[in-house]
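Reply to dn_fold:

You asked what the input looked like. This is it:
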Amino acid sequence: MTVRWGRDGPDFLMALDRAAPETLGRQLQEQLRAAVRSGRPQPGERLPSSRRLAQQLGISRGLVVGAYEQLGAEGYLAAEKGAGTRVTAARRRPLPRPGRARPGGGAPDPVVFTSGT
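and this is what came back:
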């Protein structure tokens, strides 16, 4: 189902595909994360309530609550009791990814994990 928010919420499309290999919760997280990173919705903008968004998307409220909590833990969203869930300014730009090619060319840096001892 596709949902477009308008006057009372962010202006962007969201569509969940029940036939996709990713879970609905993962799809919701990824689409919300991508929207915040792209600047839609704007920092400080309030997102729909978990109940309203769940109803609009035809999914359980628990999936929306889980997505909001995950994005809150990542710093994309902030929730305040009685004030709703809002977009934070902390994570508007995409984070650099390990292993990206260097600007001057050449092989990407390898990712190295150490045991700490």
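Helices lie at 24-37, 50-57, 61-73.
Hope that clears it up.
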